[in-house]
Amino acid sequence: MRYYHIIRISFLILFVLGASSSLAADSFPYKDVGDGSPATSVVLTLVDGIAVDRGGNIYISHRSKNRIRKVTPDGIITTIAGNGTVGYSGDGGPALEAALNFPAGLTVDGKNNLYIADRNNHRIRKVSPDGVITTVAGTGVAGFGGDGGPALSAPLHLPSDVEVGPEGELYISDRSNHRIRKIDPEGIISTVAGLGVPGFGGDFGLAINAVLKFPFGIALDRHGNLYIADRGNNRIRKVTPDGIITTLAGDSMHSFGGDYGPATYSNLAYPTDVVVDDKDNVYISDRNNNRVRKIDAQGVITTIMGTGKTDFNGDNEIAPETSLYLPFALAIHPDNKLLVVDRSHFRVRSVGLANFAVRTVAGNGHSLFKGDGGPGPGATLNTPSGIVIDSHDNILFADLQHHRLRKLTPDGIITTFAGTGREGNEGNGGSALSASLLMPSTLAIDHEDNVYVVHRLGNGWVIRKISAQGTITHFAGNGQQGSDGDGGPAVEASFYTISDIVTDKGGNVYVSDSTSRSIRKIGKDGRIHKVLDETMVPMGEEFHPNSVLVDDEGALYFSDSGSSRIGKLGADGTFQIIGGTGEFKDYGDGGLAVSAGIRSPGGLALRDGVLYLAEEQTARIRKIDEKGIISLVAGTGVTDFSGDQGPAIHAQMKSPFRMVFDHKGNLIFTDRDNNRIRKIDTQGIISTLAGHGNFGWMQDGLEVRITVQDFP
Prior knowledge:
By secondary structure, the chain is mostly beta strands. The chain is globular and about 65 Å long.
């Protein structure tokens, strides 16, 4: 997500020659999606990576459209790789005709080769200066292996970033293998950091013996130090040229703090990228804090961009007074600027490192919203998340990045029932349709059809309640980050990271907070207290509750993404593990669930004593029957989209997130990264109920929000 600063003189001649090659993409092959237009006029949604070459050309990994875009110094955007379809094809031919699958991190070497972390293809691709695409690492099968051999024979697992070194070596953030790997100039791959198990450990020892947790962005400095955005540990790690690893910033707490002090005592929240300038300043995309942080050469951390608030306030302020919304990727521009992917403001921003002036260099700030009043499959969804069913069999779901709650009726018509699309927390006491929401995530519903919605507010969270009559009110959360308030009113309580909510038949609301390692209960009297935390379960500090549900007998079930287990707290207070060995692996179908490997379990659903669980990372849905036997319900383990109208076990999904049963026994779930609502019927056949997989890409000049009545 950056370029490397040390380039040999011999590279420069090749670089100049390459500037006139097809990588310049001046033929505007995809004018229908904005090619040839000013970069600030097009829609950019889900940008995952960014890089810059020495000529000042900016490369953008447009993940949601499976394309790589290029912005020239005069501000014109083109496509240089990817035909827009999801898949893997095109090696040996023009990059413009190739298929990519959720491209992520980017880097450019001194010969003007562009490297792409082709995430869901589990490969690293290369686009040469003459526009030819090839694969340089990965077999296409998610897994780990191959160290000491050719990189093309080595499995990768959802690689998130790439970085090129001064001798032509290529570093890979092998995210779901929890490793950093290196390809030497001869094409041989090895591991340079990470044991391959998620967790934290190993500081002051050899990096190959250290423990990482979902590493994202990586960077090299001019001295050969490697920096790792250790996202799952809320830390930045540093590996010296002799292979010793330490923590540079962060103390594991998912929070904000520590400015003007030593970076090792600071707090970060889901850091996703890191870059280094030629003065040894380190910049961090502190994603969930909505800030960019800087660590100077003396190790002092400060905020250089972002107020912590998410409402867009333009480019008229200096960087520290400019709001960001989930900053994701960074790059150093040769003109002494920092490029910031302001992901949920749908922009790429430029920050002058001398004067902190801010400018938008790509993206018009809009995402495409459409479909209300028409059939669900014609609607555009943007990260559908929580989902519930009301008493009339309407499917209600959170359209997260559209900042709305939407409803799909039994006859298949989609509408909005809460949210204007404007980000915020306004409108309490009035109609939910006139209220603003901010990234609504998970939902719950009670027996009176009151809907509870979780969304962000500032650095924290709130829960709001929408009555069956459509009035929205504040239910819980003060918008501050923390875990305070037990014993008092829920509206005054703080939360770190609300991962799920659920109601029981008595109308109590349970809240899962993964970062504070707790599950809390809000009673009918509106007061909150803790019912479970890491001191009460055998997982201890590995306990990170994800999804929760309560059965009719009052038993509480939860998925623990930290220990990769499923737990149950009985109504009598007894606790048991009902699924998972604790290994971050997939195995055991057909046997006892307690002897099976479950990889980061997420959403849960229960019907007739059978527990269903979603595994986001492996894109599968499994079930545990009343005898404790685990088996596959849906998914092949490959993250993609396929299989509609056929058996669900042969279908492909991308991050199945939350699930619910309708009154006919059909399993309805949000296929989050496919931007669809899907159904598995009682015969095991899968289909799409809403969404078509595309969102946010539109031709320059179209209205941002349209209502579509007729669908092709």
